[in-house]
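To: structure desk
From: M.T.
Subject: fold request, one chain
Message: Could you run this one when you get a chance? Sequence is below, nothing fancy, just the single chain.
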Amino acid sequence: MREAVRLSVENVRNHGGPFGAVIARDGQIISKGVNEVLGTHDPTAHAEIQAIRGASKILDTPELKDCEIYCSCEPCPMCLGAIYWAGIRKIYYAASREDAERAGFRDNYIYHEMSLPPEKRNLPAEQMMQEEAGEAFRAWLDWEERIEY
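Reply: Done. Structure tokens follow.
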């Protein structure tokens, strides 16, 4: 956790967002990530996402089920989703989403929005072509070489 926090402070000094993350397995650091949103102009370049990408590449697998992630702040909804997708077994975090909100980040707002049904969210969403989109899922289910993830 000290490394994740250290990375978050260092990243601010390097003109990045105040977030750091470390992925470890069996007590050894596998990868590190810092928030690179400002430098890359990529809104998905959060510290946790960067650390997951690095660990997946190093371990040559999308499944990080025997790893833990140490985050300088409670993961935002996007990062939490990625952590679930990666199968990481435990999350440790330092600052809370309320701390992030006080610093001007919208994590709490997004968590709230996601708890609402789509028609009640501030971001309009409309479902279209559901039947046609099902073709991709049918093809997936029929694909004999598919790997479940």
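Reply (cont.): The beta strands are 20-25, 28-34, 68-73, 90-95. Let me know if you need anything else for the meeting.
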